[in-house]
Design goal:
TIM Barrel; Rossmann fold; Immunoglobulin-like; 6-stranded mixed sheet; 5-stranded mixed sheet; 17 helices; 24 strands; 22% strand; globular
Length: 609
């Protein structure tokens, strides 16, 4: 079949963006567990389709659980995590994935408080099956069960690993090397009385159930998905336009002194940077095989902005260890605007490769400094960043001659068209409205050790300093104002809280706004996050118009973990914040944040889930 071409998918990735140095952080949706859970829920629903009998493709959320670096030593790393952090931060996204109807789940390489995840009875049986009522299958990450022998030293031999993992709840082994396939010991384990045949048959049932739902045992004509054609249904103009729209919606405008949107075609522009003409590094880790006919590099899009384009990458590759300063200086001479395209790509951020710092690779910052110091005509400088995680912008943010900065992440095949549309506000969804799904630290000194899994000081929920950019941050070409916040003033414990707000587009462009609803607890007897996302949505508002947004704060969002009773909702006051950003941030997007509070009457034990 080849990679990424089967119909049982090891996705979505429901790990959290816990540390920006982690090599696979670019695969994570967000640092917020509620945010990740909602994205995962929609992903699984979309992947499965809505046919009553057949799955379009089956989802397998990964990596269960408390996986998130370091990549070095990941095959034998022992994650130490408190029960409160485990329940409050790491488990919720996966629970939401199970609520979406996921047929499988993939257990991770690491040990969890001393026990390998794929042999962890508490994780796979107690939490997943008993508390969450999961009826699907668990599959081990590739080689994970054999690594319990040769890496973790948890089991002595293949028979022990086979019996221990299966008994702990891992239905399926994934292992390419036939010599290391521990589950080949199952027949002998049954013969020797170490496993019951009836138990093995029960563990096989969810595997065959998923295969049945994928249509493997039915005539192809019975499943509407079996006749899908890659050229007729996938590689289409409409899907390419969807790729442009999706990429455009992800861009986050970090700085803009008014140079954007670009309203006229330039005579000559200078384009520099190793990511400008990249057609590989614009994709994230674990990319599909994309028909090169559909790939549009950043340079491809920028060429549409001028009659003449001067270009030089300045570096041999994205690592930028070989830097050609003279070519950069000549490229930016005698131009009307300068576009600097820097970043990382999977060459820097990928599985097995953590970053040791947040600096731009190699001489990339030197390239940017050369642009700023040699822009003698003081022409507009627009910095485009293509990264999966934050980079060090301390020097960059102090430069007034860098007029605009946009984080483009890994925009993939439609990079050029999407960037052109957003920079020039061409077409629908072209005003930037993306928001940062992580806290962008000012420096590496704001980040704890990558191997420390205590959540203290991590993510906007627990970090108490002033970052470079806060979670949820993102500028727009227009302006918004919030008013008319109405909500329930009190709720009974265990009930949802409803509210509404009106958002006005007070600027000059039709645009999307991302509404964010946060809550915080007052004087709770247990430790709580300083605030937590409880609802969000993206809505389109025409200039000079307004829109009403109705939201719900679910009762589960109000619950706090108790090590003895599980999740509980207690009487007290919860503060409420509604706006286009977090409340009380030093770095503001310019719009206001409305505040309120509501009282919870009574108490309710929700238990362990």
């Amino acid at each position: 079949m080849g990679n990424f071409k089967a119909i049982s998918c090891f996705s979505p990735n429901l790990d959290l963006h816990r540390d920006p140095r982690w090599g696979r952080a670019n695969e994570a949706y967000s640092e917020d567990p509620f945010h990740v859970g909602e994205y995962g829920y929609k992903y699984i629903k979309g992947l499965h389709g809505n046919h009553p009998r057949y799955l379009r493709a089956s989802a397998t959320p990964k990596h269960f659980d408390v996986s998130g670096g370091p990549e070095s030593g990941r095959m034998n790393f022992d994650t130490k995590v408190s029960e409160r952090d485990f329940r409050t931060y790491f488990l919720p996204p996966f629970r939401r994935g199970i609520e979406a109807g996921s047929t499988g789940i993939l257990c991770s390489y690491n040990r969890l408080n001393g026990v390998p995840a794929c042999a962890n009875d508490k994780l796979l049986n107690q939490v997943l099956r008993k508390e969450w009522k999961f009826k699907g299958y668990v599959i081990a990450d590739a080689g994970a069960i054999h690594h319990m022998i040769d890496q973790h030293k948890y089991y002595h031999d293949a028979m022990e690993a086979c019996v221990g993992s299966l008994t702990a709840g891992c239905n399926l082994e994934c292992q390419g090397n036939i010599q290391h396939r521990t589950y080949l010991n199952i027949p002998k384990a049954i013969h020797d009385g170490k496993l019951k045949e009836s138990f093995v048959r029960d563990m096989v049932k969810p595997l065959f159930y998923t295969r049945m739902r994928l249509g493997e045992f039915d005539p192809p004509q019975m499943s509407p998905y079996s006749t899908l054609d890659i050229h007729r249904e996938v590689l289409t103009h409409d899907h390419f336009q969807l790729a442009v729209e999706v990429a455009s919606k992800t861009f986050v405008l970090l700085k803009n002194d008014g140079v954007l949107p670009i309203k006229h075609k330039y005579g000559t522009i200078g384009v520099v940077g190793p990511m400008a003409d990249e057609d590989e590094q614009i994709f994230g880790d674990y990319k599909p095989d994309t028909d090169r006919h559909f790939i549009r590099t950043v340079l491809h899009g920028l060429k549409r902005m001028a009659n003449h384009v001067k270009f030089h990458s300045g570096c041999k590759d994205v690592h930028c260890n070989q830097y050609e300063s003279s070519h950069v200086k000549s490229t930016i001479a005698d131009v009307d605007a300068i576009f600097v395209v820097l970043g990382t790509g999977q060459a820097i951020e990928s599985e097995g490769h953590d970053r040791h710092d947040l600096d731009l690779p190699g001489h990339q910052e030197d390239l940017l400094q050369d642009v700023v110091h040699n822009n003698h005509a003081n022409k507009p400088v627009i910095l485009l960043l293509l990264t999966g995680s934050p980079v060090n912008l301390q020097w960059t943010m102090g430069q007034s001659h860098i007029n605009a900065i946009m984080e483009c992440f890994f925009p993939a095949m439609a990079a050029g068209d999407a960037i052109y549309n957003v920079l020039t506000n061409s077409g629908h969804n072209s005003v930037p409205a993306g928001r940062l799904p992580f806290t962008w630290p000012e420096s590496i000194h704001q980040i704890p050790s990558i191997s420390d899994y205590t959540m203290s000081g991590r993510s906007y929920m627990y970090f108490k300093g002033d970052p470079m950019f806060p979670f949820g941050y993102g500028l727009s070409y227009t302006t918004f104002h919030y008013d008319s916040l109405h909500h329930d003033n009190s709720v009974q414990a265990g009930h949802d809280m409803s509210g509404s707000v009106v958002i006005h587009n007070t600027g000059h462009y039709d645009a999307d706004e991302v509404v964010q609803v946060y809550i915080s607890w007052t004087d709770h007897h247990h430790p709580t996050p300083q605030r937590a996302l409880a609802a969000f949505d993206r809505i389109h508002i025409k200039k000079g118009s307004s829109a009403a947004y109705k939201f719900t704060v679910g009762s589960k969002s109000m619950a706090v973990w108790d090590d003895h009773q599980g999740w509980e909702i207690t009487a007290g006051t919860i503060k409420l914040y509604v706006g286009g950003q977090q409340p009380n941030q030093k770095k503001s997007v310019g719009s206001n944040v409305l505040a309120g509070s509501f009282n919870i009457h009574g108490s309710k034990i929700l238990g362990k889930y």
